[in-house]
Design goal:
The chain is of the alpha/beta class and 348 residues long. The chain contains twelve helices and 14 strands. Helix 11 links the parallel strand 13 and strand 14. One of its GO terms (cellular component) is cytoplasm.
Length: 348
């Protein structure tokens, strides 16, 4: 059965472009195109779409309010349509917190051409959303690690994610104590969005979260997020680790690529690093995690039940790259237990 898609956008041009993209995809079928939330509500009730593409900025009722109401009344996978602006990034992150599965960023200029060129990615995001799991909000919980017993600059944590990853990453690192080992993160996001995301994580976490600039010495108590459209790598510098940004081509279909980050951890940190692969569409990170595992790193994959999209972790598990498979709410403690065991001279 084709995936039923409802397009909701106040822009007639965007409605037309998205509708054409959906119609041309054999796996999808367009059930309607709504110009505002009121029409969309009627269409949702009438057609019961499998996926909704939803504009954030709409008249009468904005996309965030409509999303919040709909997720309570009739939970449906939603892919947000956002602008590449700071305001758009803030609203998009809020939408993901409210339960949206993914987002599509409209280019600032040449919207029609940009969206059309992005058609294959849009179709893949809609397909992934149709098979995603809803209903995994972050729960407030206590961690047993108020502080790390064994700390030092030689231990590193690498976390990679894609679809559903913004909330999953938050759930993991907001439970890290202030002296947790340095953490590097690659989440598939466009430029600008990563700046806003890093700032939001920093406001929620005990550790300090920054968007990576390149050249930083990695320090305990800090997390560094790969900027959009840059690969994040770690290199050894004497007794320290430093970050580098790579402007090379996409790897595994992405930039930043989790594979690039994990491969650098395997090469320069080996058994001193822990690799974590969270929810996400596709295969990025699986080969890099396998490399880390081969070089002696302890590696964790999020389990299928708690993933929004079980793609990247599934591939890593199939490649036997995961030391452990854990539900999301157990990963942060498992990481810290592992690092304390390594620091004490043992391995789990």
């Amino acid at each position: 059965m084709p995936i039923k898609v409802l397009v909701v956008d106040d822009s007639a041009l965007i409605r037309q472009i998205l509708s054409e993209i959906v119609v041309q995809a054999p796996e999808l079928t367009l059930v309607g195109a709504a110009p505002d939330a009121y029409v969309a509500k009627r269409m949702v009730q009438e057609f019961r779409p499998d996926v909704i593409t939803l504009d954030i900025e709409m008249p009468k009722v904005d996309g965030l309010r409509f999303l919040e109401v709909m997720m309570k009344a009739m939970p449906t996978p939603v892919v947000m349509i956002s602008t590449l602006t700071e305001r758009g990034a803030d609203a998009t992150l809020r939408a993901l917190e409210l339960g949206a599965v993914d987002f599509i960023a409209k280019p600032k200029l040449g919207v029609a051409q940009g969206m059309t060129e992005y058609a294959a990615v849009i179709v893949e995001k809609i397909k992934a959303a149709a098979h995603s799991k809803l209903g995994h909000p972050t729960e407030t919980r206590c961690t047993k690690h108020a502080s790390m017993r064994y700390t030092g600059t030689e231990k590193l944590i690498g976390i990679g994610a894609s679809t559903g990853g913004t909330e999953a990453i938050k759930d993991v690192i907001m439970h890290f104590p202030r002296n947790a080992p340095a953490t590097i993160i690659s989440q598939h996001m466009p430029p600008g969005f990563t700046t806003t995301y890093a700032r939001r994580l920093d406001s929620l976490c005990e550790i300090t979260v920054r968007e990576a600039q390149g050249g930083e010495r990695l320090l305990p108590g800090f997390a560094y997020l790969a900027p959009g459209n840059k690969h994040l790598k770690v290199e050894r510098s004497g007794a320290d680790y430093r970050l580098t940004l790579d402007d090379g081509p996409k790897v595994s279909g992405h930039k930043p690529s989790v594979d690039v980050m994990f491969n650098s951890l395997a090469e320069h940190a080996g058994a001193n690093a822990v690799g974590v692969l969270l929810t996400g569409m596709g295969r990025d990170g699986a080969k890099g995690m396998k490399n880390m595992h081969t070089k002696g790193s302890v590696t964790f994959c999020q389990d299928e039940k708690t993933c929004v999209v079980y793609g990247m972790p599934k591939t890593a598990v199939e490649m036997k790259a995961a030391s452990f498979i854990k539900p999301l709410d157990e990963i942060s403690d498992a990481i810290l237990d592992t690092l304390e065991a390594i620091g004490a001279g043992s391995r789990l």
